């Protein structure tokens, strides 16, 4: 079957129906290929590009340089000759479809620099010689690629909420690349760095504008408002959160009122039946009458919006938790004091499943 958007859409409908999750899809995360993006949208789901894949594409764009490719090809050739050598730490070969593999290959090459130089010098087979300048280029290249490796490794986690990490990670990459641009690199690496910065901005520069990601970031007790670089965006997200809480409060209030109305109707029917049976029109005496009156008097006052603002503020006043903490567990522990916002968090805090291809 050809991987056209139409065929992919049919398969998505089929699989999600078989799994019984067709009506439970919040959004679909995919790579950035046009066919799968079109297929997801045609099914009617919200599509979000895989951030790890996007970062990988950014790095690949940055490495499309003849001088860099010449060095990488030399490294590969040396690897081919030494891959079966019985050494404690073996060389690593890049795989084009594996994220960060170029970084890992070059990083290992640096770790084995002295051993490689010695081995190449005594081998009978003629192998490419890396000049001092090329060794320096490899080291500088690893330095500017490391932020992307750190980001990809973090965003590909499986045991914690990853959607809320995207915006802080992208802001961290941007800041780190800016700081790196102040270093005294060679002209070649400076050019690569500028390509990485511009490509990153082109692909992920507007990530804070994602409604899905911005809400997830704000609802993560590790970040809240601190996860944003733009105060205007953060304030906009706050208002969206307030509206979501207010909607939950409105629904809960309506449900409670309906239950109370039903309960009163049942009580009245029972009382009428009892009065008919007993021939007694006096008010029924209950040990809970006084408590029920106090309970009714102590129900939350104010509009849904005003109550939502208070609950949002209560969340903001809670301490930021460490980055290695469990956000889902935090919300479980705070659902009593943040009853409506915890429901929003349960729906909006997402854990992406990222796998290297």
TrEMBL record:
GO cellular component, one term: nucleus
TM segment ranges: none
Sorted UniProt keywords: Metal-binding, Nucleus, Zinc, Zinc-finger
Location(s) in or outside the cell: Nucleus
Signal peptide: none
Protein's UniProt keywords contain Cell membrane: no
GO MF annotations, alphabetized: zinc ion binding
PANTHER family: ZINC FINGER BED DOMAIN-CONTAINING PROTEIN 39, ZINC FINGER BED DOMAIN-CONTAINING PROTEIN 4
Full protein name: Uncharacterized protein
Species in which this protein is naturally found: Rhamnusium bicolor
Taxonomy of the source species: Eukaryota, Metazoa, Ecdysozoa, Arthropoda, Hexapoda
